[in-house]
Amino acid sequence: MKLLVTGGAGFIGSAFVRLALGTQPGVEVCVLDKLTYAGNLENLEPVAGDPRYRFVRGDICDAETVRRVFEEFQPDAVVHFAAESHVDRSILEPDPVFETNLRGTYTLLEAARARPVGRFLHVSTDEVYGSIEPPAEADEAFPLRPSSPYSASKAGSDLLALSYHTTYGVPVTVTRASNNYGPYQFPEKLIPLMIANALADEPLPVYGDGLHVRDWLYVDDHCRALLALLERGRAGEIYNIGGNCSLPNIEVVRRILAATGKPESLIQHVKDRPGHDRRYALDSAKIRAHTGWRPEVDFETGLAETIRWYQEHEDWVRRVQTGEYRDYYQRNYGGR
Ligand code: NAD
Ligand code: TYD
Fold first, then answer.
1. 31, β-bridge pairs
2. What is the pLDDT of residue 122?
3. What pLDDT score does 149 carry?
4. Within a domain: residue 190?
5. Domain that holds residue 157
6. N or C: which terminus of the chain has fewer CB atoms within 10 Å of its end residue's CB?
């Protein structure tokens, strides 16, 4: 099985590559990644010496690059992670978000139309459903009401991908996962940012009242779900992948402070995110029924593992906290 993994140098993509090569002897992987601020070859160092792995630096929006990779690697399946993945950055600067998430997805779908593959796994998010009033949970038929440029671009790319199944028979499967956490996550998202700041005795900036609810999914559980869907998922279908662990942000932040032995006085409530979704909640009955998958890592274990990783990889954190990062931090948090 030859897997073309786009965005494989990012947080979830690299976890997927490490897991696929670590557990599936018959798998070959080609990573196609532009290495934006979020892409990091250090995330792939554990597999760098594996003869079944190769890396191509390239932009998924560049049709010629994508065509060449398809021709040379001849993938059996595409696992499409590459995206601009952060809501706050999408609010500050929507342009690259629409370019990569929509044009990039379109370019890959066109390549898969020209040179057929056995499966096109389009990795998406629960954010496409928008904020959900309790006690409802979104199943796969729930209306799409994205709130941010990021989630709107993902919803658009989901629809585009599904249209390529309906119109051209490209074997697309769309997956919608809840919030991931785990090692190697860029410290702009809630959990790694709060861990990094706590470890550095910096303020922990909680948006608004901190009562916004997210459903936390350990990254390896997400990747196991994707492997299960590569085998048993159906073309033309959407699968939700939830962590079954809903928590308000403030509770997550308190647990990080408790686990790192830092005081709650580090919490700083700051101005809320515009268009901030109050609650995400997923019904994942379909993937359970079709594949038997369920999350294996509970939040306590996953968070402890994640904190330990950041404690042991302070050099990794320092290296990704570049001038670009400091500039972003200033733009997003400076006037808050
Ligand atoms: P990430 O930001 O950590 O990584 C994105 C990767 O894509 C990086 O390696 C980057 O270099 C690469 N990339 C960006 N633009 C590119 C382009 N034009 N061409 C080639 N490569 C490009 O993202 P992540 O958190 O690992 O998310 C991966 C996917 O999973 C995304 O599609 C995201 O929407 C989806 N998702 C993420 C979460 C989450 O909680 N992080 C939850 C559900 C779904
Ligand atoms: P995030 O990790 O950006 O994921 P998403 O917005 O895609 O769900 O944010 C998770 C939650 O944490 C979200 O409700 C926004 C909140 N948040 C903060 O309160 N402070 C922060 O500094 C960040 C990055 C997020």
1. 5, 55
2. 99
3. 98
4. no
5. 2-181+217-244+281-297+326-333
6. C
Distance 186 CA to ligand 1 centre (A): 10
Please choose from 97, 147, 207, 278 the residue to mutate so as to test ligand 2's pocket, defined by most ligand atoms within 8 A of CB: 207
Q: Which two tokens stand for residue 286?
A: 């379909």
* Neighbouring C-alpha atoms within 13 Å toward the C-beta of 116: 6
**pLDDT 10s digits, 156-166:** 999 999 999 99
Catalytic residue among 106, 129, 150, 328: 150
- Mean pLDDT computed over every residue of the chain: 98
Burial 136-164 (b: 16+ CB within 10 A, else e): ebbebebeeebbbbbbbbbbbbbebbbeb
Which CATH number fits the domain that encloses residue 68?
Answer: 3.40.50.720
C-alpha distances in Å from residue 231, one per residue of 24, 176, 211, 225:
12, 17, 38, 10
- Active site annotation includes 150: yes
As a whole-number percent, the residues of the chain with pLDDT over 90 amount to 99
The token duo for 148 is: 């941010």
Q: What is the DSSP letter of 244?
A: S
